[in-house]
Amino acid sequence: MHLTRDEVRGEMVCNDCGLVSDDMSSLMSDRAPRGPKEDTGREARGYGPAMNPLMPDKGLFSDIGMPTRDFQGNALSRTTSLKYYHLRKLNHRLRSGRTHQRNLSVALDELNRLAGSLGLSREVRLSATYIYRKALESKATRGKKIVALVAASIYAACRQCRVPRTMKEIVSQSKATKIEVGRAYTVLARELRLGLRPVEPRDYLVRFTQDLNLSKEVRQKVLDMLAQVEKIYSTSGVLPNGILATIIYIASNLLGEPRSQDRIAAVANVTPVTIRNHYKELLKLLGLPRNLANPSAHLAAPTSPPTPSLH
Question: 28, CA 20 to 30 Å: which among 86, 164, 274, 287?
Fold first, then answer.
């Protein structure tokens, strides 16, 4: 099996059959027995599903159903039905009796919904769940909305797993506002001491070039140009996806695979004005002529104030 890592989704994929190995291994581990095969009788206590951190109780509690018939197919008596009803009620109280468990139940439901909307892998979900559980244990969630904390946990997990997702993308699928998510992320980063490195333009390179259907030559050209720009000016403090979108626009025109500013801006989740604001200055830094592409098509001079510096 020849495995490669998909940098966009953060998964290990087989080149031969397309199997996602992370998901398959998790399914196999859920079904595999955890005790010795030679144990029998009372000693065979190691069998059962593995713990699932994506569930509030980690899958350790039992689910009591609503049976209406016994194993012979006969209808249950009223006394037996009431007995199962009280057992279900007691089990529910034990599972969600504490505020901690109720909070986790709501938060993990929202986490799975949001991660599913963003198409995130199991690796990112597990990392986000771990971050949220640690925040709940350290009482860093007080005074913050659950939806904002969940979105902030997913954003932090994406940065930990090096899966390129901007906060704007996460907020667009969340029920919280950008300000709420930003404040929640600041609290998580400070209280949990996550120590996440700043987002760099190259983190989005694979995803953007794949979405734009650009060749490997353009991708390599973008890397070379980005390294050249970083030697002259630091890109810290500048919108990383905006800088990368501008360099992709320049490189695609240089190598004969032009893409419009509107299309690149849509993929990079920025506005075409952002690309135009950086375009002329990056051409100067790279030592390229101003008439690089057809000006009548995409390079109309902006009517806004003079181009700001990268600082």
Answer: 164
